[in-house]
Write a structure and sequence with these properties.
Strand 1 (57-59) and strand 2 (65-67) form a beta hairpin. The radius of gyration is 20 Å and the shape is globular. It is mainly α. The protein has helices at 5-28, 33-38, 43-52, 74-85, 90-117, 119-130, 144-159, 163-174, 181-198, 204-212, 215-228, 234-241, 250-261, 266-287, 295-310, 319-322, 331-339, 342-365; strands spanning 57-59, 65-67, 244-246, 311-313. The protein has one domain (5-365). Helices cover 69% and strands 3% of the residues. The strands form two sheets. The protein has a two-stranded antiparallel sheet with strand order 1-2. Pathway: Glycolipid biosynthesis; glycosylphosphatidylinositol-anchor biosynthesis. The chain crosses the membrane at residues 7-26, 88-112, 124-143, 163-192, 204-226, 266-285, 297-316, 322-338, 345-365.
Length: 371
C-alpha cells in the first residue's frame, strides 16, 4: 500500500477533479448532481433489481423489449447487501460500491504495472486509466469498476501463480457484466498454455482454475435461459430484445460510415476515435517485443476489444464504456510516458485531464444518447 500510495493519490485527484467539474456544470444548468451520479441511464435498472428482484420488462411500440434479465446479478446483490446493513438508499449504496471498486481496481492495476515495468510505469498506468475520456463512469452507479477490480486481481493472481484465486475472481467478474467472459477466457487460455508446457507435471490447481473461471458468466446465462424457456439461447434472446447482438462488426461499420458521411453528435464521433485508438493500442501491444505483456493480459484485452468492435445494435455510443476495463491497452502509452521528458509527459497528462473532465461532463449532462 505504501508503494501504491502515489498512484492511488493521483487517481483520486483525477476523479475528484472530474466530479468537481461535473458538479459545477450541473449546478450551472439546473441539474441535480446526485441525480446524475446515482440515477443515470442504466443505474435505475440495478437499484430496481436490488429492491424488487428480477422480473421487470418494458415493451416498446417498435417491438423492442427491455428486460432486466439483461443485467448481471453481482452489482444489485451488493447494493441490496449494503442497504440491508446501512440505513441508506439504493442509489447511495450503488455509488459507494462503484467508488470503492474503482479505488480497489486502481490498486490492482498498479500492482500489475509495477510487476511488469516498475513503480513509475505502474503509477502512470493508474493515472492514465483514471483520465480516460469515459472515466466519469467510475464515478456513477455503473458496473465497469466492479468488473475491473475482479479482473485486475484475477490477472495478478495468474501472474503470481495463485490459480485458485484466479479462477474464483474470474467467476465473480463473470457475474458482474456480460463482457466479464473476457477474464474467464484469459484464465482458461493461460491454463491451457501451462498445461501444454508442464504436461504430466501440471498441478490440480490449474485444472480447478479453468473449471471455476467461467462458472459465474456461464451460470447466469444458463439461469436466464432456464427462466425464459431456452437454456442455451435464452439470454441472447433477451439481448436481442434490447437490440444488442454480435455480428462481427457489420453494424458498427455501418454506423461509422454514417458518422463519416453525415453530421453527427460529438459522442458518436468520439466513439469512433476512441475505438480506433483502442485498436491501435492493441496492435502496439502485439508488435512491441520489448514491452509485450504476458499472455493473460493479451487475451483479456483482446477479448474485450473483440466484443466491443464486433457488437452491433442500438448502443454504438456505449462502446468506449465497454472498453474501460481493458486497462492493458494503456501499457504502451504508460511505458512511453515513463521514458519521456518530464515536461512532455506533463503536457500529455494535462491534456488528457482536460479532455476527461470536459468530455465526461458532456456525456452526463448534454449528450442525448445513452452512456
Amino acid at each position: 500500500m505504501r508503494r501504491a500510495a502515489p498512484a492511488l493519490g493521483l487517481f483520486a485527484a483525477a476523479r475528484l477533479t472530474g466530479l468537481l467539474v461535473l458538479w459545477l456544470w450541473a449546478e450551472h444548468i439546473g441539474r441535480s448532481p446526485r441525480q446524475l451520479l446515482a440515477h443515470t441511464w442504466d443505474s435505475p435498472w440495478y437499484t430496481r433489481i436490488a429492491e424488487q428482484g428480477y422480473g421487470y420488462t418494458i415493451h416498446f411500440t417498435d417491438g423492442a423489449v427491455h428486460s432486466d434479465l439483461a443485467f448481471f446479478p453481482l452489482y444489485p446483490a451488493l447494493v441490496r447487501a449494503v442497504t440491508t446493513v446501512l440505513p441508506i438508499g439504493g442509489g447511495t449504496a450503488a455509488l459507494l460500491i462503484s467508488w470503492g471498486a474503482a479505488a480497489a481496481a486502481a490498486f490492482a492495476i498498479y500492482l500489475l504495472g509495477e510487476r511488469l515495468h516498475g513503480r513509475r510505469t505502474g503509477t502512470v498506468l493508474v493515472l492514465l486509466w483514471g483520465l480516460l475520456p469515459h472515466a466519469v463512469v467510475f464515478s456513477i452507479a455503473y458496473t465497469e469498476p466492479l468488473l475491473t477490480v475482479f479482473a485486475a486481481f484475477a490477472l495478478y493472481a495468474v501472474l503470481t501463480g495463485r490459480w485458485l484465486w484466479a479462477g474464483s475472481l474470474a467467476a465473480l467478474a463473470g457475474l458482474a457484466r456480460p463482457n466479464g467472459v473476457a477474464i474467464a477466457a484469459a484464465v482458461c487460455a493461460t491454463v491451457a498454455y501451462e498445461l501444454w508446457k508442464r504436461r504430466a507435471h501440471a498441478p490440480w490447481r490449474l485444472w480447478a482454475a479453468a473449471l471455476v473461471a467461467p462458472l459465474g458468466w456461464g451460470g447466469y446465462l444458463l439461469w436466464v435461459g432456464v427462466r425464459v424457456g431456452d437454456p442455451l439461447a435464452g439470454y441472447f434472446a433477451v439481448q436481442d430484445g434490447w437490440r444488442s447482438y454480435f455480428d462481427f462488426g457489420a453494424d458498427a461499420l455501418s454506423d461509422v460510415r454514417d458518422i463519416v458521411l453525415r453530421p453527427a453528435e460529438l459522442a458518436s464521433t468520439g466513439t469512433v476515435l476512441i475505438v480506433c485508438a483502442a485498436v491501435l493500442l492493441f496492435a502496439l501491444l502485439l508488435v512491441d517485443r520489448e514491452n509485450r505483456p504476458p499472455l493473460p493480459l493479451l487475451v483479456y484485452a483482446g477479448v474485450l476489444l473483440l466484443i466491443t468492435v464486433g457488437g452491433g445494435g442500438s448502443f454504438f455510443e456505449s462502446k468506449p464504456r465497454f472498453l474501460l476495463p481493458a486497462f492493458p491497452l494503456l501499457l504502451p502509452l504508460a511505458c512511453a510516458l515513463t521514458k519521456a521528458r518530464p515536461r512532455a509527459a506533463i503536457v500529455v497528462i494535462a491534456a488528457l485531464a482536460g479532455l476527461s473532465c470536459c468530455y465526461g461532463t458532456y456525456l452526463l449532462t448534454l449528450a442525448p444518447m445513452p452512456l
